[in-house]
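Suppose a colleague, Dr. K., hands you the sequence of a protein chain of 403 amino acids and asks what its three-dimensional shape might be. Before reaching for any lab equipment, you can write down a predicted structure in token form. Begin with the sequence itself:
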Amino acid sequence: MTRRNFVAASGISALSASRAIGSNDRIGVGILGCGRRNLLGQVLSFRQQANVEVRAVCDVWRQQREQAAAEVSEATGNAPDRVHAFEDLLARDDIDAVTIGTPDHQHCTQLIDAVRAGKDAYVEKPLAMDLKELKKAYDVVTASDRVVQMGTQVRSFPSSVAARAFVQGGGLGTVFKIEQARNSYQPYWYRYAERRLEESDTDWKRFLMQRRARPWNAQQYAGWFGYRDFSQGPHSNLGVHYFDLVHYVTGSGPPARAITMAGRFVGHRDGFDVPDSVETTLEYPEQGFLVRYCSTFGVRGHSYLKFFGTRGHMDATRWGDPFVISGDSVEAEDRIRASETIPETESVPHMLNFLECVRTRQEPNAPIEAGYNHSIAAILADESFVRGGRVEYDPKKRRIREG
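The predicted structure, expressed as tokens, is then:
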């Protein structure tokens, strides 16, 4: 089925046709995109606890599709259907929810079609690559009754939940600066580009989707993270987890302004065009703080993530572990007196939270608003890089302009 035929056949009226899920009904899940983001593995790990069944796996890359089907069969003893076109997956009545783990440029299109087909959806980050598709996806989701979870799972870590309560309870005093430096010796897109495939293994036209047609290019397909047509660089990939954590911990909305400097200073592999070094600063005037994100390849280590407040600072560098707080950096009378960790708070794993919300119809931990906000941060940062100057976001008009 082509997307044009699918859209014509489904339409927004399909929302009323979504299956009502009872407390004892098994949830049917479809996996859309079977690559290295391991959404399938997460669903399988919670299949018994959440009473779900993976009924179909969909990927245009044949080997990935077959490998995913084999993984489901090994884990459950049942073979899922193997689907080539995502429209065919969304048209099925036995699929209640989908996970979308495809390349960045496909997220909004597939989310919109999933919601219009009456499916709940877990969508990998970033939600969007540009403001036009972001607004359309947001409007479609908010006009529906579908459960949509963003794939920013760091906010569901016990350490993040505890930090949110600590910071919003005044533990750091007034937060005025948040910084992350996230470095690596080799760009992450290199290891993806090492994957080998032939044009006959996949569907190049479907991969390109709305991007301009071009001859088959195995490196662009396998190493899509390194090309701005499909992903914009570290600030729209690695940086999104950070932006979302800032929003979650502080309770803030999107930034108002951004300025970014970026370029290719280390990488010398022919063909890649995303920046390998990024320095961006985002301003949150209503909350009264600046957010700095830096990513550099060609250096091992020297990574950190810290929140600075009038009572001290919080080190969140190892976000899987309890965050460390200290007042050593300030002289205020009410400063944090000792260096200690914030006790972790009980939390529900991100994928399990989504699957439970599919059944209960409650709002998940990273709803569409979270995706909108993290996308504004990433898009603002990228627009500044492209335009070569400071840009600002107007939340009332939902526009970006030079500022």
